[in-house]
Amino acid sequence: MKLAVSGKGGVGKTTFSALLIRSLSAEGRRVLAIDADPDANLAAAVGIEGADRITPIAEMKEMIFERTEAQPGTIGGFFKLNPKVDDLPDTLSARLENIKLMRLGGVKKGGAGCICPESTLLRALVTHIVLARDEVVVMDMEAGIEHLGRATASAVDRLIVVVEPGRRSIDTAAHIRQLAGQIGLEQIAVVGNKIRGPKDEAFLKTHLGDCEFLGFLPYEDRLIEADLEGISPFDTESEAKAVVRQMVAGL
Ligand SMILES: Nc1ncnc2c1ncn2[C@@H]1O[C@H](COP(=O)(O)OP(=O)(O)OP(=O)(O)O)[C@@H](O)[C@H]1O
Ligand SMILES: [Mg+2]
Fold this sequence. Notes:
The protein is an alpha/beta fold.
C-alpha cells in the first residue's frame, strides 16, 4: 500500500502522517516513511531519537556523486539518469519499531524542468520506492506532489489531502487535485483536521462534497503541547490518535 499525504502548509500533514505511520507500525505492518517536505521534520513527529541529526538524502554529496557520476549542484553536463538507488531505503534510513524513515531534503529550484544530479537521484529513489518496495509507504509531502510523476501515479493507492476548516486550505486542496489529475492520479481522499465541531465538519463536506472523506480529526490542545514538548503525537493520548487508528483498520 502506497500513501502520499499533501495539503496546505500547517494543516497538519506531518501530525497526521506521524499518527498514520505509528498506527500502522503498531498494527505490525512494516512501514517505509518518506519525509519529502524540505521544511518539515517527520522523524521528530514519528518519535525517532536524534531526528534533527538525520542528514537529508539531497545533502549526501558523496553518495550522489558516486551514484550519478556528477557533482551535486551542477546543472546540465552528463550524468547517469538512472542511478542505482534500490539499496538506499535499507542503508540510509532511520529506524523505530517497524518503521524505516528517509528524509529526502530539498533541491534548489533551477527553473522549470531543472535536471540536476540531486533531483535525478531523488526522483529515481521515489520511483523505486513507489513501484518496487513491499512495505506500506507513507510520504509526507509539501503543498504539492513534486516527487511524483506519471510513472508513479498509478502505483499510489491514495493521495490523502489534509484539509482544515478554512478557505485557503480548500483552495490548496483543489490545486493539489488538479496537479494530481495532470499525472493521472485519481485516487484522492481527504482527511479533515483541526475540527472544532459539527460546523467545521459541515463546512468541509459542503466545499469538498465530491471527495471521499477518510475521517475527521478534532482540534486538540494536546497535539500542540506534544509538538512544543517535542514528543510524537502518537505518544500522547488524543482523540485524533484514536481516529487514525480506526482509519488504519479501514485501509
Ligand atoms: N488536530 C489538531 N489540533 C490542534 N493542533 C494541531 C492539530 N493537528 C496539527 N496541529 C498543530 O498544527 C501545527 C502544524 O501541524 P503540522 O506540522 O503537522 O502541519 P504540516 O501541514 O505538516 O505543516 P508544514 O506545512 O509546515 O509541514 C503544529 O503545531 C501541530 O501541533
Ligand atoms: Mg509538515
